[in-house]
Design goal:
5 domains; 33 helices; alpha+beta; Immunoglobulin-like; eight-stranded mixed β-sheet
Length: 1077
Amino acid sequence: MWRPRNSASPNRAREMSARAVQHSRPPMALVAGLAAAAALLSPQQSSRPDYAQQPLVSERLYQRVRFEADGTGRRDLRVRVRVQTEGGVQALGEITYDYNSAEETLEIDSVLVHKVGGTTVAAGPDAVQDVTAPVARLAPVYSDLRNKILTVPSLRPGDTLELHAVWLRRTPLSPGHFWYQEDFTTDGVVLDERLELDVPRGSYVKVKSAPGIEPQVSDSGDRRVYRWKHANLEVPSETARRRRAAEDPWIPRVHSVQVSTFRSWEDVGRWYGDLAREREAVGPEIRAKAQDLVRDRRTLRDTLEALYDFVSKDFRYVSLSFGVGRYQPHAAKDVLANQYGDCKDKHTLLASLLAAVHVRAFPALISSEAEIDRDVPSPAQFDHVISVIPAGDDLIWLDATPGVSPFGFLLYGLRNKQALVVSADAAPQLRLTPREPPFPTQLEVDVTGQLTDLGTLRVAVRHVVRGDAEVLLRLGFRAAPAAQWTSFGAALASAEGLYGDVTDVQPGNPTATRQPFEVAFQLVKAGYVTWSGKRARVPAPLPTLDLPRDTSDTAGLHASLPDQDYTARLRLVLPASVTARTPVPVALTRPYGEYHSSYSVHGDTMLAERALHLTGRILSGTGQRDLTAFVRVIREDEGQEIALERATSGADSTAPASATADELHSSALAALNNGDARTALRLFRRVVDLDPRHQWAWNNLGRAYLRLGMLDSAIVAFKRQADINPYDQYAYNNLGLAFWRQRKYGEARDAFQQQLKVSPLDRYAHANLGRMYAEQHRDSAAVTELGQAISISADDPQLHVDLGKAYLSVGQPDKAQREFDRAIELAPIPVMWNNVAYAYAVQGVNLARAEQYARSAVDATAASARNVTLDHVGLKDAAAVSSLGAFWDTLGWVYFREGNSLEAERYVRAAWLLNLNGEVGDHLAQIEERLGRKDDAARTYALALAARRPLPDTRAHLAKLLGGDRQIDAMVERARSELVQLRSVPLGTTLREDLQGTVTLLFGSGPKVEQITFAPGSDRLRVLDGALRAARYPLELPDSNPVKVLRRGVVTCSSDKGRCVIVLDEPGLLATEDVAR
């Protein structure tokens, strides 16, 4: 009857209330929890769950589904949802339900909003619009698909939405049959979820529940009723989601409840065959078109490919899952005339064209998302239709849906899957699709170019792709206009770790699928080599595989490896004055694959090649250590650097020859702290040459090596430090860090434990040991060590976060939540959520959780300032402005680490314009650099160095970008005046008087000035009210969240020119004692 649908479903309220917000950047904020509601479910629990950070809490989700023997029926949906944040308001402010007007009706007969103050607002009839579904507007043959759009009135955080909707099926999908499936909520908070299924007692009905979800069954007269109860009181952590997804990107879904009246898969197949077969009739239009397409084709293969290409490439796909709309496809002649169709329509046209040339083709029903549950024969298990052509004892499998798939190729989600082949010659049966593609898959990347004397990298990059990635690239370039190819090529380069300015993107023909797909582009990276002296080290400019940094998370390492053969080649011409020392070649051979790399220099040209060949899908039983080591070695090989040396060095590359060891050490330490590890390395080497037993130099030399990833050299340096002073307070801890990065866990453990012998209360050693154990999934040991670190430093909130993560790994979510709560308890304000989020972002882990925390901080701060007016403004409100900028920066930095640079730029730019903070400026510059905007990045780095609280690393970032630091001081000096200009807003020629005074501005959405106040003694400036409101301020709001922003500024007018200008204060300097009406 009603099949759960992908994007438009009668379950929409349930999905919106409990799931949808969780799937993509959930907006969250801290508001009052629902402890009372949770207590009703668990009255004997002394510790009540806290759902304060959830945007929505579904208090009640009731569904009653009734079927009649003829296949008609009714569905009642009753929902009661507590809205807790602005994100929740946005999710439920407008709800869309779909229905098929040819077969069913939909009535939304009650919509109530229970306000926080106790009043209730009822939605009127005009709150519901009945409109044509978007797909029907694009493809009129699907005009039966309708949407009812509910606009929920007066919904605000803290309100409760209650609604009732009824779907009434008048026409059965299959007379005498019905089917249904339901998935209870698992990734959102639902306090009380119930499903009641009412079916005819005399009908055969197969009902299957997922393990642990058993119904109560009762009979009454000629009816049988099944009742399920469910609650979900915890939202899975990001770690749990990541591990589950890493096991395989196509996780088989186990439905909570499945219902079907079909007794066998053969019955399902015959039902669909009866619906589809008549639509494949060969009429004169079809016959004529088929004959035209196969004219001059000399082989059967050529004939098949010609007809397949026509349907695949020339007919627009309308994205409807199998079962959305009608199950019966449109007639082949209509599909031919319309030139579009869904998956079953495209198969129908292909089968009809093939029949016209006497070739049989049959539909195959398949699921792209889940494995088929053979116990429950049901159309609900399928979401796609592909084609099957008998070829002797074999089958040719075709999928014309993507439009750019090579002949006989199935995407990964369709391979090695059970499909119901509906043959006209034999009984329908489940058949297994091919495990492997019909041709060898490959990814070849050739990088050819030169390194200039100034350190600029100029290369041509060429990709040759066959397989799943090929189809994705073909789809992307086919959809993108030529004007967007540069952006598409830049995104491709960035995803592969090739950063720079991308131009001249030249893709192959996206529809020429008989050969591998090719795409080429030019890449220029200024400052690829930054010379601090005669020597420099750079990575080979080759694409990198997307391998996990944390190789201890082995649950899905096999899924992270590519399915295709991978080869990357480099041919790089070096400047005449530069010589190169190549990295060490690597050769790995395992039963499941091989990896080889080679590096060489011939004259002025460096050659490099990396190749990975997998003999088949890696089995989950592959030894953990073996697979971990295999991936680790590949990643470490990708991290090897080319050692370059030039004949002459820059003027700033050496320190005075007369400098003492201590002077050199001070300079080196400053360089290290400023992020210039290469200069620090050179200077520390000079220190140990002058004084081999310097009391600190070997340790700091090791730190420089550690920064540069030269782990073997770092280990030698730390061991030398320990030899000089066996009781050094840092050496063994740093030695442990170096071994840890090499994934030499035994040696790392010994070093950390030796540090603890030297200093038993060293919280850093305990913490590092605990974090390393967590990486190894020695979670119980991690809990022990992190617990000891907290015992030493109980008020360190980050340690509580780390311990919380370890508790999640050992399956103790309650303890984990207590640790997270403790972290926030130590600083129970949005700043703590921000700090936790930023820590995650810096580490590049748990980014979804980081996004939630960052969004919580943003939403809560915006909400707290929503009702601010200048009549009642306090210090807290003023401080929130500066905090909001920091929180925007954190959220943007999370997006940056997630690879979403455009979203990152929106938030970080807004934060920069608000706060002009050095750290934020550094973030913005890094984002601009990743986006390939070198000039913008250089300017922003200089501004960041001139701004408040610049990061130590910013100067090094700019020096690397520019290829040296000789210009930096001048750039920073110019930037200081530019910063003042950024805060200066001209008001026009308005007053010919010498006046100066302070004003405070309140900005709202837009942003626009909503209110102005003038400090005592500034009354004469009130005539500038209009000019102040009309001026254009350096302020951006990154999203649609309602927010209020306070800014104070000094207005100055001159009598000789009659011009006025306001110079805005930095937000942190805003004071309230001067604010007056």
